[in-house]
Amino acid sequence: MTAERLFDLVIPRGFTTLTGGFIYDQRIVEQLRDAGWRIDVHELDPQFPHPSAAALRRAAAVLSGIPDGRQVVIDGLALGGMPGIVEQESTRLRLIALIHHPLALETGLAQEVAAALYTAERRALSAVDGIIVTSGTTARELSDYDVPAGLVMVVPPGTDMAPLAEGSGRGTFELACVGTLTPRKGHAVLLEALAGLLDRDWHLCCVGSADRDSRTAAAVRKQIAKSGLTDRVTLRGELAGDALDAVYAGADAFVLASYYEGYGMVFAEALARGLPIVATAGGAVAETVPASAGLLVKPGDSTGLRMALARLLDEPGLRGRLRAGARKARNNLPTWRETGHRFALALARSSAG
Question: CA–CA separation, 78 vs 285, rounded Å?
Answer without folding.
Answer: 24
